[in-house]
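Translate sequence into structure tokens.
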Amino acid sequence: MNSRTTQTQPPNAADEDAIRAIHQRMIDAWNVGDGAAFAAPFTDDADFVVWEGTHLKGRQEIASFTQRIFDTVVTGSRLEGEVEFVRFLSPVLAVMHSVVRMAFRGQIETSLSRDSMELTVVTKRDGEWRGEGLMNARRLTLERQLLFDDLDSLPPEAQHQVSDLVASLKKRHQRRKGRAS
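Result follows.
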């Protein structure tokens, strides 16, 4: 038995456009801070794994979680991105690979620490494409990952010292930035 999945029919341009639109709908919802609209392209029982590993189950949980972050840690942020590819596994099943970049409120450029890639499983039910599952993962260079590994290898007291130093440098930078305005 051949375990390799093959495409059973050539992709339909309208289907591919509908799948790609899921990604854009999420970006548009993010940019206006609307958790319900962000979750709307998903099925009622979708699985969504957030970049840091939180597993959300269902459209309602996705909406609630994203609204909470829109109202707090990412208020006023801007998301941009694009679909890298859509691969049809059957006439009603496909995977979409996309990338997203985020800029915090007031930032012109996106933040390298917030670059992510997403793999979304989509299905067509009752003529409509919806997300069944999405895995979001941060994109880190090997060098950045090695830096984090080095930090993680420090004893707890040294990790706290590094955190305090970073906080101090951020405050100093903000003060200088404030004076320059």
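Note: Helices lie at 13-32, 35-39, 59-70, 142-153, 156-180.
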